[in-house]
Amino acid sequence: MSFKNSQGLVSTDWLAEHMNAPDVHIVDATYFLPVEGKGAYDAFKQAHIPGAQFFDVDEIADKSSTLPHMVPSPEEFAQAVEELGLGDGCRIVVYDARNGGCAAARVWWTFRLFGHEDVAVLDGGLGKWMAEGRPTEDGPAEKPQPRKLTARLNHFILRDKKQVLNNIKERREQVVDARSSERYRGEGQEPWPVIKVGRIPNSLNVPWDSLIDLDNGGVFKTADEISDIFDKAGVDPRKPMIASCGSGVTAAVLAFAAFLLGNKDAAVYDGAWAEWGACEDTPVE
Questions:
Q1: What angle separates helix 103-113 from helix 251-260, to the nearest 10 degrees?
Q2: 192 and 270 part of one domain
Q3: Domain check: are 14 and 105 in the same one?
Q4: How far apart are the first and last CA of the chain?
Q5: Does 245 participate in catalysis according to the annotation?
Q6: Nearest CA to 129 among 103, 90, 92, 97?
Q7: Range(s) of the domain holding residue 272
Q8: What is the Cα–Cα distance from 116 to 55, expressed in whole angstroms?
């Protein structure tokens, strides 16, 4: 079975062939958790795909929120990405250093959240690109010519705490947790300051990295394999879905996988466990 929305995923061969096209723009979305003690921009300066701009997940965010990397306003997003030379008419290819998943999917989702649909994830990410001996650059990115981006918020693919609370009673949408099975069960350590562990009631668990084929260059698994993983977890990825995780990053991998299978409206709970686990009024299983 092939992906119904394969335009959301491009191969390293495709990028190598098209990277010099004037409308193709490459974005490095590498991100590390604070507890990992690594700098994503330092990693970018050590090696990145030629011509890539660095998208800082923590900086292009709502700075007024105490929660990590919450989505900014459309105006803030537009201003930030315009300065990266990204705007209307651009074909954007996003990658990261973690097998093409993780923050690349988050940035893919964020562009779609603000109405820019011509965006794709590089299958296998930087790891596959480098393993194939393809060229990289070091140092900071060149300053691009700013471009205009028309940003309009797509409420269909974003959820907040109130909506998730209401959904516990209404059960209109599946809630799918992208964290590890240990954290989902409340047995693993959370990287964010929370007062409780466990999961959102009635939520299901599909660890984000279970969708990645580590034995095949870190590409996404096939459509059949991804469908089977969702099915075994009790999830129908073609039906309404809210993806959650620790802080709203890896949840986007589930939304991306659902998109590849034909569900363009899979939503992300942006506050995720960083918010849910820190609140007194949120029920936990």
A1: 70
A2: yes
A3: yes
A4: 36
A5: yes
A6: 97
A7: 155-276
A8: 15
Chain Cα centroid distance, residue 246: 12
Other Cβ atoms closer than 10 A to 215: 7
**Whether residue 162 is found in the same domain as residue 264:** yes
Q: Is the pLDDT of residue 133 over 90?
A: yes
What confidence tens digit (pLDDT) does each residue in 233-260 have? 999 999 999 999 999 999 999 999 999 9
Query: What is the number of structural domains in the chain?
Result: 2
Residue type, 25: H
In this structure, the answer to whether residues 47 and 90 fall within a common structural domain is: yes
Q: Is residue 220 part of a domain?
A: yes
Average pLDDT over residues 66-74: 96
Say yes or no: 97 and 208 in one domain. no
Alpha carbon distance 119, 25 (integer Å): 9
| Phi, psi values for residue 61, rounded to 5° | -160, 170
Could you say which DSSP state residue 181 is in?
A: H
Overall pTM > 0.85: yes
The CB density around residue 105, as the number of other CB atoms within 10 Å, is: 31
pLDDT at residue 2 in the model: 46
- Residues in Cβ contact with 162 at an 8 Å cutoff, skipping those fewer than 6 apart: none
Residue 20 tokens, joined: 């010099």
Q: What is the CATH number of the domain that holds 200?
A: 3.40.250.10
